[in-house]
Records
---
Amino acid sequence: MNHNLFATFAKRMRERDDADFITTREGQRYSYADALAASARLAGALTGIGVQQGDRVAVQVDKSPEAILLYLACLRIGAVYLPLNTGYTGEEIRYFLSDAEPALFVCRAAVLDEAQRIATETGCPAVETLGTAADGSLMEKAAAATPREDIVPLGERDLAAILYTSGTTGRSKGAMLTHRNLGSNAETLSQAWHFTPEDRLIHALPIFHTHGLFVACNVTLMTGSSMLFLPKFDADVIFEEMPRGSVLMGVPTFYTRLVADDRLTPEVTANMRLFVSGSAPLTAETHQAFEEKTGHAILERYGMTETNMNTSNPYDGARRAGTVGRPLPGVEIRITDRETGEEVPQGEIGMLQVRGPNVFIGYWRMPEKTREELLEDGFFITGDLAIVDDQGYVHIVGRDKDLVISGGYNVYPKEVEQLIDELEEVYESAVVGLPHPDFGEGVTAVVVRQAGSRINEAGVLAHLNGRLAKYKQPKKVFFVNTLPRNTMGKVQKNELRKQLQDTYR
Ligand code: MLC
Ligand code: AMP
């Protein structure tokens, strides 16, 4: 049996033939037949460039249908797709390329010179460009290439993608996801959420993370439904499109913005059958306000880069505010004591661990990190604290990892602190997430100056600019004389969060 996920997709794509796969408001349209043909041409281009089975293809491009076709082309030939946030700076990209050693880096034309320089420095042999109007050197090569209609036979553990996720040490880890990981989750979700070929997903998420790439696109491909690709979340456009859409997937910020808008009514959402939220906690208030204004209960689910989706509120049945629902079919969870790893009694808070065909196979070239987090019995330690209630619903009550989630993007404080601490004028710093009305949590820095230093907020931010993606940069910088510490000398971030809790309210 060929475990190549593309073999599963191709079967459905052939059945759906001339039906819409991806459309845009600018008039681009790929039917499933078009997507099959275009992915074969792109696969031919990749082969011509020298990309072979198992090679990584790093991609930092603006959202476009062609980026998804490139993802499909990689699957087709067994290359490993490595999407990168468009916000990453050159310095961040240098790390990813040197760690992943891709055979090809696909970038935006505007940054080609810099990309070539970084590729040379990191030993990446090829750089191509891809634009948002089906343009760029990669598309030119695809037009001239001999299409590869074959689908490379693959085993269960062959990699489909590597997605980098930041770590508590400040060094990003590449989560290795297999064809089986992605395929099993797409199949499970399409059934759990009752997807049919008639669905039209309003796709406003970025396509370099699990949510917008795998949850949204793989579920669509699995069912042969269609997606309207929007460059980004824009409430005006969402309101215009909802009467022609059936599903919206979003991070909580999408929903807090929609709820705050007078245009949110039962009428405008009448054609929609499902609103999914995830990637960060959706507050019970937003859930309730959305239901009051539209009659739709948002379906909240819980996942991670390493695991794809683990739990989901039910399609039929109570979608309970403040919970992430029950484990998806095939996914096992257990709640354990943080110190001993033993399971705690039902109803008690503990570390959430998950196991299933959705769970990744390890961190790229980090066997020790993998052993720390992926246990021998197959359970993965999520770093999330949870309880399971008497009806089996999981409540995520906190995080054991030092992580801020801002508008659905993860920011590891360590990475920001290390950069701030590089400044000679800074003695030390602590970065925390504070309640933020729009982003859920706002990245905030608390800095202790060196004696005699006068560095201010602008000085700190200037140092981060260009080194860190914009969304990781603090929204505010505070200066204090000392950081609160416990008797072990550890900075008490809880204390800082308490003191500064009203900063953005
Ligand atoms: C943009 N900015 C952000 C930000 N997004 N700052 C902090 N956090 C964010 N998430 C910056 C901009 O650069 C800008 O800075 C300013 O904030 C205001 O921008 P905006 O125009 O209001 O933002 P917008 O473009 O509307 O983007 C907000 C957003 C977007 C929430 C729509 O960030 C988004 O689409 N997030 C989705 C992230 C996602 O897909 N996560 C899934 C991860 S997968 P300035 O200074 O230039 O004005 C995962 C697993 C799972 O977690 O379970 O799904
Ligand atoms: P990432 O590493 O970007 O995949 O982010 C995964 C993390 O996002 C999880 O470990 C959780 O902390 C958080 N997360 C995802 N979905 C939810 C949710 N519905 N509720 C609370 N936290 C969530």
---
Amino acid sequence: MALLELKEVEKIYRQGKVEVPALRGVDLLIDKGEFSSIAGPSGSGKTTLLNMIGCLDQPTKGEIYLEGEKISQLDKNQLALLRRKNLGFIFQGYNLIPVLSVYENVEFALQLLKDMNSKEMKDKVMEILAAVGLAEMADRKPNELSGGQKQRVAIARALVKEPKIVLADEPTANLDSETSTDVLEVMVEMNQKLETTFIFSTHDPF
Ligand code: ADP
Ligand code: MG
């Protein structure tokens, strides 16, 4: 069974009387442990597609299955729970909490989900920060980091709760090409080490 399956997914945005078709029948199969990219120019529907997979928005038509379970028809509360347990998100603009340290940003993701004692939680957070090369920077605030370092924090935050899928919407769009390569390499490394499935979007042609 595929980890994720999309069947003829359509999305039409309605703005008053105007209909904007963003996805016109997308079929997609993703297996556990895959590292997949969605490439296309601005406006091609990458964010829309990731939002459907991420249960942040629902298709106008078509079905989405996660581990065989149809998720395209769950209600808001079921979707929120499913999202919290199964999905990690990485955004172009990092979306770190500015008043929290690197450590606290990652810990916060875990506090929302898992019933762990503080020692277990600390070990888990420090382990993932070390894995993305940020153990030394645990006490810094986001504004004391480079763009690449901020994105590593976001990767750690997405991974710390051991989600089934990490969705990354243009995670390298704000970074120079060298830093982009570094950040992609960290994602590939985490994919190989943890077997987490990654789906990321990019407007760069390959
Ligand atoms: P990408 O992420 O590849 O740049 P998007 O998924 O953001 O593409 O957008 C796909 C299309 O859907 C575009 O034509 C965009 O203008 C339109 N669109 C995206 N979000 C909305 C929205 N909330 N309301 C109306 N149209 C939207
Ligand atoms: Mg987009």
---
Amino acid sequence: MPFTSLGLSPALLRAVAASSYTTPTPIQIAAIPAALQGRDVLGSAQTGSGKTAAFVLPILQALEGSMPSRARAQRVVQALILVPTRELAAQVGETIRSLAQHLPHPPHLASALKVTIVFGGVSINPQMLGLRGGTDIVVATPGRLLDLIDHNAVELGNVKTLVLDEADRLFDLGFADELKRILTLLPTARQNLFFSATFPPAVEQLANTLLHDPVRVVIPREPLGSLGEPDITQRAIAVDAPRRTQLLRHLIEQHAWQRVLVFVATKHAAEIVAEKLRKARINAEPFHGELSQGKRTQVLADFKASRLKVVVATDVASRGLDIAELPVVVNFDLPRSEVDYVHRIGRTGRAGETGLALSFVSAATEAHFYLIQKRQRIDLILEHIEAFEPTEVAPDRGPAGGGIKGHRPNKKDKLRAAAALTQPIPLT
Ligand code: AMP
């Protein structure tokens, strides 16, 4: 199906063409016509599926339609997009700005519409200034938005469309209370576009109360590799925990990888692994929540521009980062849950590109990895790499994990052991 069949205006078709989108992705095919009709949408889709454009294009079309009347009045917030992280806020903002460039605008205005991006962790003052004179679209993380509301810097009484992007992550990051407060400040008659990769009970419940007769769009996670969906090869390598950095270096050198995103469990591990790589003359930087916003922005910009070969990140980076053509993601420490696993590996194989997701599995985390695989319905062979064959034996976890004495624990034993294991093992 071509973009021209979705009901988009000529200006937005030009915007789509200028972005080199040739055919709409499945979520765009399903969500755009429904959203253009003003329907609520409940989308189950991963990052990388093209969901940002799926909600941005209908919002822009509505704003384009109301342009003549708005041109005479002060700008008021028409669309509110709530996201879990600063990086995602910046990315969504960029997509809006780039697609909005093609909208016609009244001669007395510099641009057709104003987009304001607000997030925590940086000074509030420039954001307050940015909201002066009103704005058309706000992209925000919930906590900072409430701060701005409390400072009377923004008013939500005219919001026509609310987007919740990565709703599951909003809950994971503890934004439930903030979300509830924000919802009470919005007009009840509005359109809701709700996107989430997963639907745990809290998200399901919010969707049920929030949405009116939504069009449901389910983009299956599997099979990977179909049109418009990421094509990710998943592999798992058995390695002793203390030898993981060496193995990482070996793989980077052997395969001449130019850009690798490495996930670890803690900020400390991010610092240590990056430092070890730098000592081995591999250009690497840590990326975690304790870095200043300026530093985080710089690391991302350097990585995008290929000035950095490796970024060693905590899960703060696992959502929402859209780094084109990221070929390799490595789980140096395994993620805590299968949900985080999906988000981490989703950093590679973006929109039609191919990617490789590698997990390092040590004796102590093998059971945990089986659990992730089971929940993800994947079954990977634990590979051995020459000169890095594992020698460690899984620690005894008592009756739940030990299996029958003298026997190798079977898959069920391993699953039970994994259920008892809540945290990934620390870096050694
Ligand atoms: P998202 O899932 O919104 O994070 O989008 C993932 C990536 O796909 C972004 O880099 C978009 O620019 C890109 N993209 C979105 N829609 C299309 C499309 N129809 N064709 C090709 N690329 C797209």
